[in-house]
Please model this.
Amino acid sequence: MKFGGTSMAGTERIRRVARIVKRQQDAGHEVAVVVSAMAGETDRLVNFCREANPLYDPAEYDVVVASGEQVTSGLLAIALQALGAQARSWLGWQLPINTVEAHAKARVDSIDADALIAEMQKGVIAVIPGFQGVSEKGRITTLGRGGSDTSAVAVAAAVKADRCDIYTDVDGVYTTDPRIVTKARKLRHVTYEEMLELASVGAKVLQTRSVGLAMKEGVRVQVLSSFIDDDAPAADTIPGTMIVGDEELEGMDMERQLITGIAHDKNEAKITLTRVPDKPGAVANIFGPLADAAINVDMIIQNVGRDKGETDVTFTVPAADLARSMDLLESAKEAIGFNRIIPDTNVAKISVVGVGMKSHAGVASTMFKALADRGVNIVAISTSEIKVSVLIEEDYTELAVRVLHTAYGLDAVEA
Ligand code: ASP
Ligand code: MG
Model:
């Protein structure tokens, strides 16, 4: 079981979490619980580090920011004990959760779960702070923002859990953002692949890395709400959304739609370079410096060359990296040989995702036609086996999502 920051924000909420956990144990499960810091706490701790020294030592940053989860794990153990349950906390270095690579963005390498499993079998509820681990050198590490989801999946894999229930402030994964489309439906199942695409294109329910890990380790993940009454349906009845493998889904979900979900992402920026030489190596000259700076380029279009052997190249980068990208390109202006550089942050990426499109034609054309009918202009397109994304003017985001939700037959029918 994993509980996020809003579920752990304050004693009252931690008591509710304790009741939910105790109920699972009473239902006959052996349970391990992974917790986040209280909502807002990690931001607060990060700010302390920045104030102390903007060029802080990442190893000491980890010591500071990992503390939020230490507090909530201890508090949850106390709250569980108050309900008469046996519970204890296991910090990342105590289990241990071994991590590799850099501070502030460590990756889980292995978890020694023997002691944990032995205690769980004796009926002791294990409470584990998410987000943290320990390095080869014995120092505290953290997994990157939102990393508690990944901790939970890693622990679930290590104890060979039947299920990893991720309790959060929404009650599942929806066909699209319910704040935009009131007829959005909660999905009963999503495949790992679909969830990976949805997570990476702006449906921020789970940390993307946690979904990749769940897929690799075959951990069955349920996303469900922690904001429930004591008599709400038990987690075992699967009130939330199950994220599972393709094979498990086949034949299970008869009403499967061609498209599973529609995501939007306003955190993209578009850059156009005009009059780039239309010759081998030109594009490599553009994207080399960006790659070296670890800037993630997403959509790319190169126009048909005009006469004089020149072409325009347009691509997108995360909006947060726009200034840095512009800088790098300006410095490489001579090497690349472009005329003008035109930035645009007034764009949004809309993506339709579904494993069904692997075996169906016409998914993209439905999208283009639905948008055209409403006068929405498409400025860039990219596709994968299970996703079609278009870049449009940001002001049309909500309209586009609504129109596509209807076009693919995803609207809930009125009950
Ligand atoms: N507390 C950490 C964060 O806010 C990790 C997490 O909650 O997943 O990023
Ligand atoms: Mg989170």
About this structure: The radius of gyration is 24 Å. Residues 5, 36-37, 42, 68, 130-131, 145-149 surround aspartic acid (ligand 1) (CB under 6 Å).
